[in-house]
TrEMBL record:
The protein's name in its UniProt record: Abscisic acid G-protein coupled receptor-like domain-containing protein
Places the protein is found: Membrane
Golgi pH regulator conserved domain: residues covered: 201-267
Keywords: Membrane, Transmembrane, Transmembrane helix
Keyword Transmembrane: yes
Topology within the bilayer: Multi-pass membrane protein
InterPro entries the record matches: ABA_GPCR_dom, Golgi_pH-regulator_cons_dom, GPHR/GTG
GO-annotated cellular components: membrane
Pfam families per record: ABA_GPCR, GPHR_N
């Protein structure tokens, strides 16, 4: 019988599958913004950001001069292309998922979109980031290091092929051991046996370890960035850079790349000669073995020389970029915008000085007083922002939010001082040019690893600070966890001071060893590079 009143409830008349379909459609529609954000940022990072971070001098140089490629390296470009695409996809996915996680946290604070859709999207995002940060990126970084060491994952030499895979697995096993060992510093951490028995416990343990690793990395990078900004702003001013110096440096880099291309051609010619040797008898093979040993020795010599030249080219390229940056800064300093930027840099450097002093005072007082942390442990900048956040949400824990905002400002400090960090890192890389070359080859993956860990650390710290009526989705997706805001604040400040002391000591020792002039003006080391190039 049909209902006679217009305001009768007809919900009971609708089949269950139609209700489920309508609910599923609403949830799916609510996840559309997150899917769109992930797709857009993945494409943008894959096509625009990754090529900028992974560009190498050899590729651009070969394209510009159209140098011939060795014939023996036929399958190598295809393998390198596949590896580069996998690395680009991993980098893009990590950056996109980090952005989606940030978007989900903002939606959770503002209570936007469907809670069930947010919960599903948050669980998928966190699980995806966990797989990328713990499995994909470490494996790609280790395989790149193994390949740079001369051990290839393809080829006819089965012995070196097996050794490459052994090194890959051993490196990843060492990473997993170190990753799990970090959990011993966490309060009330679970054992390996307990985590394996319970999948949720294993997932939570991995999240906590990612969180504390991200906090430690950000503390170290923030301390390094603070000292770098102070040194580049208030330290000795570098001499004026002329276009002639940049041209001379570029000529040295081009000559080094030409030498690399020449040795590549010799290596290809040697490979073609060995491939053209016909099948011979017993005596021919006996005589050929001695010649083969000589050819293999020559091949190893060429590869060793190429590795040295590539390291030298990386150092020259980095030095050239620093000179171009200094030249651009010196030209901009004569304009209004340049003077404004210089003033902002000075203000930021003053804030870094204040942040270091406040952190040192807090750590010293905590060591000697052994008392609980209070709101005075944070500087007025973070405390003011925390007051504003509490004005929006009166139920928020002001002290916990002050600690969280202090951690977020550390990321802003790292971004604001990126140029100073780059220049200071170049100064330290003079002592270890091979470390600079290795860092540049995996720079994009390193950036994605730091970004993912930073966002997960922020999410884990936000989890315990949100009110129950606001943070239900975060708590259900991230679990209870072991990272308490007060404990994280103490850990962060300790690593921050450690990075500050280490960076300041490194700059002081570098000036004492190399001399103030060559350290500040970037001249003393170029002579050694050019002498090595001529030899």
């Amino acid at each position: 019988m049909l209902p006679t009143q217009p305001d009768d409830d007809c919900g009971d008349c609708i089949p269950a599958y139609l209700n489920h379909s309508a609910s599923f459609g609403t949830k799916a529609l609510s996840t559309t913004p997150f899917i769109a954000t992930f797709a857009l940022l993945t494409v943008l990072a894959y096509r625009k950001v990754f090529p900028l971070l992974s560009v190498q001098y050899s590729s651009s140089h070969d394209t510009a001069k159209s140098l011939p490629r060795p014939a023996t390296s036929g399958p190598e470009p295809a393998t390198q292309q596949v590896a580069r695409r996998i690395a680009a996809l991993t980098f893009s996915s990590t950056i996109a998922l980090s952005a989606v996680l940030t978007e989900l946290l903002l939606c959770e604070i503002s209570n936007s979109f469907n809670p069930t859709a947010r919960s599903i999207a948050l669980q998928i995002t966190v699980a995806g980031l966990l797989g990328l940060l713990v499995v994909a990126i470490p494996l790609l970084g280790i395989s790149s290091a193994v390949s740079k060491s001369g051990y290839k994952f393809h080829g006819a030499q089965k012995g070196r092929l097996r050794l490459a895979w052994v090194l890959e697995l051993a490196g990843y096993a060492a990473f997993l051991f170190g990753f799990w060992a970090i959990g011993t510093i966490l309060p009330e951490s679970t054992t390996i046996a307990e985590s394996i028995k319970d999948q949720s416990s294993l997932f939570q343990a991995c999240l906590d370890r990612l969180g504390i690793t991200g906090v430690s990395l950000m503390a170290l990078l923030s301390g390094f960035a603070s000292v770098s900004a102070i040194w580049q702003t208030f330290g000795p001013k570098p001499r004026l850079v002329t276009e002639a110096e940049i041209t001379r440096k570029q000529a040295g880099l081009d000559a080094t790349i030409d030498m690399i291309a020449e040795k590549k051609e010799k290596l290809g010619h040697l490979g073609r000669k060995n491939a053209e040797i016909p099948n011979q008898g017993f005596w021919g093979r006996t005589v050929g073995s001695f010649r083969g040993n000589a050819d293999s020795q020559e091949k190893q010599t060429l590869e060793m020389e190429m590795n040295g030249l590539e390291t030298m080219a990386s150092s020259l390229e980095s030095s050239l970029n620093i000179l171009r940056v200094r030249r651009g800064d010196q030209l901009r300093a004569t304009t209004k915008m340049g003077r404004l930027s210089l003033g902002l840099s000075t203000i930021f450097a003053c804030y870094c000085v204040y942040r270091i002093c406040m952190t040192t005072f807090n750590v010293t007082r905590r060591i000697f007083s052994r008392g609980p942390s209070t709101s005075s442990d944070t500087d007025p900048v973070t405390y003011t922002i925390a007051l504003f956040a509490r004005h929006i949400y009166p139920s928020l824990d002001q002290e916990s939010w002050a600690q969280q905002i202090s951690f977020l400002l550390s990321g802003a400090m790292l971004l604001a001082s990126f140029s100073a960090v780059t220049q200071t890192f170049h100064l330290f890389s003079r002592f270890m040019p091979s470390a600079l070359h290795a860092t540049k080859t995996n720079f994009a993956l390193l950036i994605s690893q730091i970004s993912g860990m930073y966002v997960i650390s922020s999410a884990l710290m936000l989890r315990g600070m949100m009110p129950k009526e606001v943070g239900s989705v975060i708590n259900s997706a991230l679990g209870a966890g072991l990272l308490e805001p007060a404990w994280v604040q103490r850990w962060f400040e300790g690593f921050f001071i450690l990075a500050v002391v280490a960076t300041a000591a490194g700059i002081f020792l570098g000036r004492q060893i190399s001399g103030a002039t060559s350290w500040d003006d970037d001249t003393g080391w170029d002579l050694g590079l050019e002498m090595g190039k001529r030899s």
